[in-house]
Amino acid sequence: MLSRTLTHTTSARAGSIRRMRRRTTAATSGRIFCSTNGCPSFLELDPASGVATCQICGFTRRVG
Ligand SMILES: [Zn+2]
Q1: If both were cysteines, with which of 18, 34, 38, 48 could 54 make a disulfide (CB 3.0 to 4.6 Å apart)?
Q2: Which CA distances in Å does 42 have to 2, 10, 25, 31?
Q3: Centroid of ligand 1 to alpha carbon of 44 (angstroms)
Q4: CA–CA distance, 51 with 64 (Å, rounded to integer)
Q5: Terminal C-alpha separation, the chain
Q6: Which residues of 12-27 are buried (b: 16+ CB within 10 A; e: fewer)?
Q7: Which tens digits make up the pLDDT trace of 2-12?
Q8: CA-atom Rg of the chain in angstroms
Q9: How many A from CA of 42 to the centre of ligand 1?
Q10: Residues of the chain with pLDDT > 90: what percent?
Q11: 62 CA distance to ligand 1 centroid (A)?
Q12: How far is the CA of 37 from the centre of ligand 1 (A)?
């Protein structure tokens, strides 16, 4: 019983790590997920000002 519980905990932890890695990959590819108030859009980065803006909810975020 105890070993079963341990196995379940380990697999759940591996799943959360996998999710974090996916997020990091998305960020390095130049796409920033908005997620403000559950907004399902990506921010549009303006290379000149270094500000990323969401076209859906108007959220702005300084990058770099
Ligand atoms: Zn947004």
Answers
A1: 34
A2: 43, 32, 14, 6
A3: 10
A4: 9
A5: 49
A6: eeeeeeeeeeeeeeee
A7: 666 666 666 66
A8: 17
A9: 7
A10: 34
A11: 14
A12: 8
For residues 44 and 54, the answer to whether their CB atoms sit within 8 Å is: yes
> What residues pair up with 62 in beta bridges, in sequence order?
51
- At residue 27 the predicted structure's pLDDT band, cuts being 50, 70 and 90, is very low
Cα 51 to chain centroid distance, Å, stands at 18
Gap between the Cα atoms of 33 and 63, Å rounded? 13
Q: In what order do the strands lie in the sheet with 32-33?
A: 32-33, 42-46, 51-54, 60-62
Whether the Cβ atoms of residue 44 and residue 50 lie closer than 8 Å to each other: no
CA of 3 to the centre of ligand 1 (A): 44
